[in-house]
Amino acid sequence: MSIPTPPPSAESGKRSRRKEARPGELLDAALDLFVEKGFAATRVEEVAARAGVSKGTLFLYFPSKLELFKAVVRHNIAGRFDEWKLEMQAFEGSSSELLHYCFFVWWERIGSTKASGITKLILSEAGNFPEVASFYRKEVIDAGQELIRQILRRGMDSGEFRKVDLDYAIYIVLAPMIFLMTWRHSIGMCVPDELELTPEEYIRLQVDNMLHGLCACQKPSSPPPTF
């Protein structure tokens, strides 16, 4: 995504180069604090301090905490949907393989990263911040659901998946993702090592379970592809 830039100034070359680096540093600092403290408890002064700039500098790029949050979500999650759509369209394997692939790509790029903590924030605070909830629904939830819908429709159109109600089937795919993100940023942070969940194995089992319910014809099970 494009990061906003302030009006040009007459600063020296060194000073200007430093200012150009600041939006990315502010987004990184904001992501850290939003995930650590939540939306309500994060103050813009803290974000600026962690990025090593003044609050005034932060407001040159992001006029409010809400706009800063939107930029964080777009930079880390929403801005990547076009890239994922292109990958999905270019995928040449079966729809079952595509479903496996998308789960593991999602885990690698979002689920296993700090950005997955945004989902826990939304689940915890959306009711208190309607503007945040509305933005996240439009730019992340709606876009993600449409991508899943296209994967399932691909399998149904080819005859690989049986016909199902897509409006509800998308939640079968979303549920394991939401569980992993909330687990990682809540109880999963404090469970003993012997009880630690292995995300990759959980994903393999969940996708295998989905496909047994989606496939039009039951065939002898084979090991799922490894990505």
From TrEMBL:
- Residues forming the HTH tetR-type domain are 20-80
Matching PROSITE patterns: HTH_TETR_2 (PS50977)
Q: What is an example of a Pfam family matching this protein?
A: TetR_N
Example of a GO MF term: DNA-binding transcription factor activity
SUPFAM superfamilies membership: Homeodomain-like, Tetracyclin repressor-like, C-terminal domain
> Could you tell me the superkingdom of the organism this chain comes from?
Bacteria
Q: Which Gene3D superfamilies does the annotation name? A: Homeodomain-like, Tetracycline Repressor, domain 2
Segment Disordered: which positions?
1-21
* DNA-binding region, residue intervals: 43-62
- Key words, A-Z: DNA-binding, Transcription, Transcription regulation
Q: What is this protein called?
A: DNA-binding transcriptional regulator, AcrR family
Lineage of origin: Bacteria, Pseudomonadati, Pseudomonadota, Betaproteobacteria, Burkholderiales
